[in-house]
Amino acid sequence: MRTHDEVRTLLGAYALNAVSPAERVKVARHLEECEDCAHEAEVLEDTAAELAVLPDTPSFPEDLMDRIMDSVPRSRIVAAPLVRTLAAVAAVALLAVGIMGVAFMRERSRDAEFAALVARAQQQVTFESSGEFPARGRLYIADDRVALALDEVPDPGADRAYQLWTLTDGTPVPMETFRPRGGRVAVVMDMPRRGDAFAVTVEPARGSRQPTTDPILVAT
Amino acid sequence: MRGEEATLVESIGRGDRDSFRSLVHRLGPQALGLAYRITNNRELAEEAVQEAFAEVWMRAGRFDTRRGGARQWVFTLVHHKAVDAIRREASAVRLAEHVPDPAPSTDPEEHGWVMDRRDRVRRALDQLTPAQREAIQLAYFGGLTYRQVAERLGIPEGTAKSRLRDGLITLRGLMEAEGVEVGRG
Fold it and tell me: Using CB atoms, which residue from B30, B69, B84 is nearest to A53?
């Protein structure tokens, strides 16, 4: 009940995006199990969003429209034509095999380490999306190493990366950054300190010492 | 009642670029106005709007148009991106700086639905107690956390939290009384 009361008092600040990243996680988790709070949060968020009409309406730069349209794919299926093109150019393909071979071997050894860690993990935690972030996955913990496995991870954008955090009483300790490959993440990293929860945020590419955005994934 | 945006978001979820363009055309100008207000910086504002719409494209298929308002969803994303930007730049103090406002839109279509709604929302906000109104404005347009609001106003954190929550709850009622169907329309 204590969490419920605490979260309840935070709902206004939460709806206005005026809470700390750790509080955002706490509220989001509670909303998944408390219908009353979830309903109130939804209404308050919608109320806050109505305030968006107050600032003057500027004219919309044409190049911004172009950039926005360029940032989304022209077609949802982009892989097939690329594969065909590669297959058609045999000479290029030969060269590609050479380059990809090296990458493939590195990948293999990383995969082996990943698989070994998953196999000997003493504990695994499941990530929950704290909003509508599409990714799902797990973190496998073996002593001071972890294996992070995520699916459906969107590109974080240029100059950005995802960063894993371990939290102790809501205080985040930074871990490594990572980027998805083909929407998937399968990485192994060190864990400086074992916290009681984990979170993923989007950060500048080289990572941050403190989260600068709200967590998109949370696990305890 | 479903807004036009809800229909657009549904088609965007199926990968329809034309609907996406229509949604950006319809909500983009006000989204940019909001982002400017929060960041006081043209570059950050445009980046926030671009990121927010990229997320709209990505998540539209999962958005449940029966639950919340589509337009409110888009503005919430824009708000988050803009606030993220100023927290990243650690420049939430910029509130006091004066930056020339961007040129107002002269295209009546860009104002469209906004004008009527703006007057009603403004009237509702004006009826809050000054203390609640100030706290909400600092949080929403200033991008401050409730702790920063408390510090700025010299009030306990608990008071800041309750001003924000009670203020929003009251504001919702006031908006409805002004004919704003919160979360819809």
Answer: B30
Residues B107 and B140 in one domain: no
d(CA B22, CA B108): 16
Q: What is the pLDDT of residues A111-126, one digit of tens each?
A: 667 777 777 777 888 8
Residues of chain A with C-beta less than 8 angstroms from the C-beta of B80: 17, 214
Chain segment B130-150, per-residue pLDDT in tens:
999 999 999 999 999 999 999
List the single best residue of A5, A46, A75 to mutate versus B (max B Cβ within 10 A). A46
Spatial strand order in the sheet of A160-168: A171-178, A160-168, A197-204, A217-219, A123-129, A136-142, A145-151, A185-190
Q: Which residues of A159-185 are buried (b: 16+ CB within 10 A; e: fewer)?
A: ebbbbbbbbeeeebebbbbbebeeeeb
What is the predicted pLDDT for the residue at B108?
61
Do A128 and A177 belong to one domain? yes
Instruction: Please count the residues of chain A.
Output: 220
Contact criterion met (CB < 8 Å) for A68 and B49: yes
Q: Is residue B156 part of a domain?
A: yes
Q: If pLDDT is split at 50, 70 and 90, which confidence band does A47 have?
A: very high
Quick one: pLDDT band at residue A83, thresholds 50, 70, 90?
A: very low
Average pLDDT of the residues in A167-177? 82
Closest residue in B to A65 (Cα) is: B24
Among B94, B112, B130, the domain-final residue is B112
Reply yes or no on whether the pLDDT at A103 is more than 50. no
pTM for the model: 0.64
Asked if B66 has any chain A CB less than 8 Å from its own CB, the reply is no
Size of interface A-B (CB pairs under 8 A): 206
Side-chain-side CA neighbours of A32 within 13 Å: the count stands at 11
Q: How many domains in chain B?
A: 2
Contacts of B172 in chain A (CB under 8 A): 43-44, 47
Average pLDDT, chain B: 87
Same domain for B127 and B82: no
How many Å lie between the alpha carbon of B8 and the closest alpha carbon of chain A? 15
Q: Which domain holds residue B70?
A: 1-112
